[in-house]
Amino acid sequence: MLKHGGRLLEAAEYYQIPLPQWLDLSTGINPNGYPIPDIPDDIWLRLPEEQDDLLTAARNYYQCADLLPVAGSQAAIQALPLLRKPGVTGLIAPSYAEHAHAWGKEKHSLCILQADEIEQKIHSLDNLILVNPNNPDGTLFSKEQCLSWLKELNKRNGWLIIDEAFIDCTPELSLSALSPQKGLILLRSIGKFFGLAGIRSGFVLAEPSILEALNEQLGPWTISNPSRFVTADALQNKAWQQKTRQQLQQQSQRLEQLLARYALKPTGGNPLFQWIETSHAEEIHQKLAQQAVFTRLFNQPNSLRFGLAKTEQDWQQLEAALSKL
To answer: Helix and strand tally (H, E) in the chain?
Structure first.
């Protein structure tokens, strides 16, 4: 099982620091997430039904008619390799490791690439998987690049899978309004920008034939009725979305400047996190954890990811910890 951010209970036990004292910056999830609306009692009592508001809300938000609700993009990541015969699948490194894990597990040959190698290697790939913006380094791929690679993959009936889990902060960079297209599969998450990771909600945007095969693989009721209700509400709240995008940009700039002040100038990032490549990553991670500040540690390459602080008190706790490095 791969390790992820957010393992705060484990950290509290390991460092013997009570849970309420911790500042968790390990996930890249919006710490000031969407305010949960009151959920009617009957929502809890009924099985999910496709005739609710979710599909309409999602189609309007993503500007795409062909989509499938899934239990977070992770559900699709695990299921999609089952729908393809083994071939050569290209993936960027570093990136979200679950993609490589899922495709390798199903006997697909993995071609690990740097971003600047895609153009050279695309002719030999059956599938290409991108995270855009990339996690953890924030690398962005333009629409023109992605559509060019899709055109090449289409010559071999290949797939271009783009995980857009962090793109809601900059929706103009998404390919969702251009979907569906042959061989193009987009993964969208409600967990990051909306800060609703706990409801396990997301979407796959693709051709109807791919969505039908994926739906058959995943089975019925992939998202609970309360999760559908909250997701639909969040996707329809344009005022909250616009305000939140502005706030996240400001908070990300604050984080970038704060880290640079303490000789930790970010190597990359996006509005939800900053990423620092450094040979001292493990030492810094440990020193911060000893002060109840939890970051995400990577070892390929040696690096740290910092998410956003939630409150002014949290920002002060982070700066106090950084000052003692």
So the answer is: 12, 13
* Residues 265 and 291 placed together within one structural domain of the fold: yes
Strands 268-270 and 273-277, sheet pairing: antiparallel
Q: pTM for this structure?
A: 0.95
Strands (E), the chain: 23-24, 67-70, 88-92, 109-113, 127-131, 159-163, 184-189, 202-205, 268-270, 273-277, 293-294, 296-299, 302-307
Which is nearest to 130 in space by CA: 155, 104, 105, 93?
Answer: 93
Residues 225 and 272 in one domain: no
Residue-level pLDDT, tens digit, the chain, 325 residues: 556 776 899 999 999 999 999 999 999 999 999 999 999 999 999 999 999 999 999 999 999 999 999 999 999 999 999 999 999 999 999 999 999 999 999 999 999 999 999 999 999 999 999 999 999 999 999 999 999 999 999 999 999 999 999 999 999 999 999 999 999 999 999 999 999 999 999 999 999 999 999 999 999 999 999 999 999 999 999 999 999 999 999 999 999 999 999 999 999 999 999 999 999 999 999 999 999 999 999 998 999 999 999 999 999 999 999 999 9
Could you give the CA distance from residue 179 to residue 164 in angstroms, rounded to a whole number? 13
Residues 114 and 195 in one domain: yes
User: How many residues can be counted in the chain?
Assistant: 325
How many whole angstroms separate alpha carbon 77 and alpha carbon 319?
Answer: 36
Within this chain, do residues 248 and 260 fall inside the same structural domain, yes or no? yes
166 in any annotated domain = yes
| Secondary element (H or E) of residue 323 | none
Q: How many domains does the chain have?
A: 2
How do 159-163 and 127-131 pair as beta strands? parallel
Residues with Cβ within 8 Å of residue 137, at least 6 apart in sequence? 94, 267, 268, 269, 275, 277
DSSP string, 230-266: HHHHHHH-HHHHHHHHHHHHHHHHHHHHHHHHTT---
Do 169 and 298 lie in a common domain? no
- Tell me the CA end-to-end span of the chain in Å, nearest whole number: 31
